[in-house]
Design a protein that fits this description.
about 200 residues; alpha+beta; nine-stranded antiparallel β-sheet; 7 helices; globular
Length: about 200
């Protein structure tokens, strides 16, 4: 049985359906492939990470932007003063830890006053001590996500890393201009580590 020839209207209908199908498929693929930057990171870059990379962030300024506590942390090379806080945005939470810069006199005085051993537990310090140390600079700042963060989100927030270093566990993605190193493993972010960019450019 011979089928009747297709009319021009039929061909036009087929073309319209095909175009609509491919357009719909492209829209779906674009929606799936779009990765959103990390929630709150743009604001934190401006208020915390950027000033830290410039070497201009003090303990007092950090505490104003993210209120926290000062802790005394025993170490083999002598105790450290560590500031701890949390950052939150859109239901996502990050733990923040920053180490204070101490000169030799302050470090020696701290070691003498505490008499801590490296095996001793960490100790929280008073709010008065936190206020008293407010002018001190910070040597390092670390952010650890408390939820799963993909490496694609890291790239969406900071761009592709300039350098990738193979670590014992995972990789270190280095962003020298931002003073930033991201520790990633199995396509997940473990840690963001920020120092004054002059440290990475040496």
């Amino acid at each position: 049985m011979t089928l009747p020839p297709l009319r021009m209207q039929h061909w036009l209908l087929f073309v319209v359906i095909a175009i609509a199908f491919f357009a719909w498929g492209g829209w779906l693929m674009r929606g799936v492939g779009k990765i959103e930057p990390l929630s709150g990171m743009a604001q934190w870059q401006q208020q915390i990470l950027g000033p830290m990379a410039e070497g201009k962030l003090s303990l007092g300024e950090l505490n104003e932007r993210s209120a926290g506590e000062l802790w005394l942390k025993p170490r083999l090379d002598g105790p450290q003063l560590v500031f701890r806080s949390e950052l939150a945005a859109s239901g996502e939470t990050w733990s923040l830890e920053a180490v204070l810069v101490l000169d030799e006199r302050e470090h020696a005085s701290l070691m003498s006053a505490t008499g801590l051993k490296p095996t001793d537990p960490e100790q929280p310090l008073s709010a008065g001590m936190l206020s008293e140390m407010g002018e001190h600079a910070l040597s390092t700042l670390a952010l650890r996500p408390k939820q799963s963060v993909s490496t694609e989100q890291v790239i969406a927030s900071f761009g592709a890393p300039r350098l990738r270093l193979q670590l014992t566990s995972g990789e270190g993605w280095v962003y020298p201009q931002q003073g930033l190193t991201a520790h990633v493993e199995d396509e997940q972010l473990l840690l963001l580590h920020v120092v004054p960019r002059s440290t990475l450019e040496q």
